[in-house]
Amino acid sequence: MRPRDDDGGRRREDDGDMTTVELNHTIVAATDKQASARFLAHILDIELADPWGPFQPVTVGNGVTLEFLDSDDVHPQHYAFLVAADDFDAIFGRIRAAGVGFYADPFRQDPGRINHAYGGRGVYFDDPDGHILEVITRPYGPAPEPL
Predict the structure, then answer these.
(1) Considering only CA atoms, which of 76, 77, 37, 78 is closest in space to residue 60?
(2) pTM given for the model
(3) What is the CATH number of the domain that holds 98?
(4) Where does the pLDDT of residue 13 fall: very low under 50, low under 70, confident under 90, or very high at 90 and above?
(5) 147 and 110 in contact (C-beta within 8 Å)?
(6) Angle at 127 between CA 125 and CA 42, to 5 degrees
(7) Containing domain of residue 28, as a range?
């Protein structure tokens, strides 16, 4: 493994140039990859991509792809999406219309509410397989803030 330069996600290439490290894709286990991918695409109002091998991809605005994969062994994970403040109300409306649980916190202890952390708005909600999804309008700051 190549040692990491202490440059906040940047590493030095063999030719000396710096390159930024970015998340490209992640696999999301689902009991029904089509249903889970359609759910997320609908909530975020983005297009569902064509299937790619065994995956049903959903690509978000910064180019990161969530690769939904059918699995009998789903362990709930957390996925957070930074959205424009102007889009939050429409997304939240689709969450409510879907009839899924939503919360102000990741531990599901404050149901039926949103949070206002870091001067924005945020909400956690359940996907069909129990993954806890989150939409926020402001990125988290350097120190934890009460939700």
Answers:
(1) 37
(2) 0.85
(3) 3.10.180.10
(4) low
(5) yes
(6) 95
(7) 10-136
